[in-house]
Amino acid sequence: MVYDIAKFCHDNNILCQGRGSAVNSAVCYALGVTSIDPVENGLLFERFLSVARDGEPDIDIDIESDRREEVIQYVYTKHGRDKAAQVANTITYRGRMAVRDMAKALGFAQGQQDAWSKQMGHWGGLADAAAVDGIPPQVIHLAQQIKDFPRHMGIHSGGMVMCDRPLADVVPVEWARMENRSVLQWDKDDCAAVGLVKFDLLGLGMLSALHYCIDLVAEHKGITVDLAHIDLKEPAVYEMLARADSVGVFQVESRAQMATLPRLKPTKFFDLVVEVALIRPGPIQGGSVHPYIRRYNGIDTNWEYEHPSMERALKKTLGVPLFQEQLMQLAVDVAGFTPAESDQLRRAMGSKRSPERMERLRARFYEGMQNLHGITGEKADRIYEKLYAFANFGFPESHAQSFASLVFYSAWFKLHHPAAFCAALLRAQPMGFYSPQSLVADARRHGVTVHGPDVNASLSYATLENQGLEVRIGLGAVRHVGAELAQKIVEERKAHGPFGSLLDLTGRIQLTTPQVEALATGGALGCFGMSRREALWVAGAAAAQRPDRLPGVGVSSRIPGLPEMGEVTRAAADVWATGVSPDSYPTQFLRARLDAMGVVPAKGLFGVPDGSRVLVAGAVTHRQRPATAAGVTFINLEDETGMVNVVCSVGLWARYRKLAVTARALIIRGQVQNASGAISVVADQLRPLDLQIRSTSRDFR
Where does the OB domain lie (predicted)? Predict the structure, then answer.
């Protein structure tokens, strides 16, 4: 069944690849379901399927997100709409949602509900609620009581169930809000309990972006790129990643990954596999990150295996356990487990630990260590305790292998075809850590010229110009326009030629006044020889010249002499209309003032000695408070030269919480930390910065 889905994707030029434990299967690789050779990479088959396993193995498939719906509809058509459905998941109350709903229940106005919830963090806890000015104690009290309670049912991100009989005979089914979809009223655990088989068809934005890259490079540069034939040993790609030049690159664009790359200094594909697995909650909490990096760089050479029998499993990660498969191999080598028993141990030690099974397998493990290697006493205890602690956070190597390939492919396009990479990421939005504004700014820093929208040049989405070296923003990015109307404009232009004037445009395409105004504001009407202000002046009159009215009935208007927009006003207009300023960044207009204050630009931090106190400033692109950071919050600032990672302690966050949560831009004083080229600023003071140009930010866990 999964092969049939993968074959449909391949036959219809839809990028897909298996992930997770399926990568351990040579059969899945031979059938084209997965793209990593498990034999060549020494992956354990028993992680996928063992004789002791009760039930079918999991085979998850990543599908390019922009075409995932085609695959879902194929499954419905192939198996029957009554025999296939998507799995539900339970949405539970987190901090912001709990405060909003409890305020609503107590009769507070909608605006007040929103104001309180927006001042809280996105990190799920209610600790921030007490610090928000004005939230009544009774709202906080009720919100704390319902935290983690179920709120409503949603649709699982990728789970689909297929059955040999009508699903309604087995499980309650309902129509989903999305057209042509049905959804179960049970979640994945309920389905597993009654023996229903679930397949995960997961949408992955990077696969869409890679497909767009391939198409853009072929169309505009005449170069055919086959992902399977990209040289995974190319040094220049690893050199770029070692500089943490990874904005937009799959899986390694986060703050933590960008801080680790210069320290790890990857030089080969397996280093990317480790990078993907290393920056996860488990390895961070388990203390694996720093020991591995120190050993990898030859700083720590005085380490040894607890017992020689552990070398086979841990050699490739320098004695630091990272992967679930290593736990299984250790059980085989150290305690004489069969591969099937090792998988039982992995599952028993996992997140859903069974005390009874654990005790049985523990006795078996100690017996095996003694019989096979004579290991007893304290040494046996240390080995078992290490495995037990590691079991709950180990990352599947198979999963890391499949993700590492996407890391390399995306980095390769960023290095060799930066314009195509930028345009592809813009097409594939929303995805990743960064907004279109940051993606465009990064492309510009790599020498890419970006043009704004143009009704006679743009497609509905971002594309390339000038032999694939420059990016053109799509009409669909313009406020009030959207993809559907943008496509109508493009199709009309292709069918009947370019638009000769604004009245020609509105005479052939029905546009509202707000739509014409947005096109004018974003510079998309500049091809008619009008300035933005001139186009705005006649927008209402032009919108009255509609294709459903008799010619000549529209209102005419004489355009007075209007001054051109200044640089700052034009940049603000670009950002208002499209979210992107194609040829500038807001901080550059304040640079003289910031320089006078002693603010160091982002790229200037590389020359600042470790431990120095500095001022940095920029737009807030995102805030992040990982569960592994013990309450520490990270703020990413961006200026026209690059990005700065700012570390905010718990105490500093409490002092500046309202400003830190709401400010679009900040001036931050702090101390530089330079860890082998990974630079951050530990903040001790925050101040607001007025950019005069709208910017947006995102919050992440």
Answer: 614-689
CA–CA separation, 34 vs 60, rounded Å? 10
To which H or E segment does residue 330 belong?
helix 324-335
Task: Identify the band that residue 356 occupies on the pLDDT scale cut at 50, 70 and 90.
Answer: low
Phi then psi for residue 564, to 5 deg, are -65, 155
Mean pLDDT across the chain: 86
Beta bridge partners of 687: 667
- In DSSP terms, 91 is beta-bridged to 152
Q: How far apart are CA 589 and CA 586, in angstroms?
A: 6
How far out from the chain centre does Cα 257 lie?
A: 12
Name the 3-class secondary structure at 485. helix
Q: Assess contact for 167 and 184: CB atoms under 8 A.
A: yes
Q: Predicted confidence band at 151 (pLDDT cuts at 50, 70, 90)?
A: confident
CB 318 within 8 A of CB 295: yes
Domain 449-578 has CATH 2.60.40: no
Q: Residue 267: what residue type?
A: T
Q: What is the CA radius of gyration of the chain?
A: 28
Whether the pLDDT of residue 352 is over 90: the answer is no
Tens digits of residue pLDDT in 389-438: 676 667 788 888 889 999 999 999 999 999 999 999 999 998 888 999 99
Q: How confident is the model at residue 111 (pLDDT cuts 50, 70, 90)?
A: confident
Residue type, 522: G
Q: Give me the residue spans of the domains in the chain.
A: 1-91+153-208, 95-147, 226-280+395-448, 303-393, 449-578, 588-699
> Same topology for domains 1-91+153-208 and 226-280+395-448, yes or no?
no
Contact predicate 662/119, CB 8 Å: yes
Class at the top of the CATH hierarchy for domain 1-91+153-208 = alpha beta
Residue whose C-alpha is closest to residue 44's, from 443, 323, 352, 373: 323
Q: What is the mean pLDDT of residues 143-158?
A: 82
Query: What is the C-alpha to C-alpha distance for residues 127 and 99, in angstroms, rounded to an integer?
Result: 12
How many Å apart are CA 201 and CA 59, to the nearest integer?
Answer: 9
Q: How far apart are CA 157 and CA 345, in angstroms?
A: 29
| pLDDT exceeds cutoff 90 at 670 | yes
Residue 124 has pLDDT above 50, yes or no: no
Task: Give the C-alpha separation, 170 to 468, whole Å.
Answer: 54
Residue 267 has pLDDT above 90, yes or no: yes
Q: What's the CATH code, domain 226-280+395-448?
A: 1.10.150
- What is residue 1's predicted lDDT score, i.e. its pLDDT? 81
CA-to-CA separations, 137 to 109, 146, 397, 610, 654, in angstroms, rounded: 17, 15, 47, 45, 19
Query: Which CA distances in Å does 44 have to 219, 325, 391?
Result: 41, 6, 16
Fold of 588-699: OB fold (Dihydrolipoamide Acetyltransferase, E2P) (2.40.50)
Chain-centre distance for alpha carbon 606: 27
CA distance 538 to 520: 10
Task: State the Cα–Cα distance between residues 443 and 418, nearest whole angstrom.
Answer: 7
Handedness of CA 62, 67, 72, 76 (dihedral sign): negative
Residue 313's nearest CA partner among 98, 82, 44, 536 is 44
A 10 A CB-CB count for 305 gives 14
Query: Over 70: is that where the pLDDT of 223 sits?
Result: yes
pLDDT digits 0-9 by tens, 581-610: 999 999 999 999 999 999 999 999 988 998
Higher pLDDT, 16 or 19: 16
pLDDT over 90 at 95, yes or no: no
Q: Provide mean pLDDT across the span 318-323.
A: 87
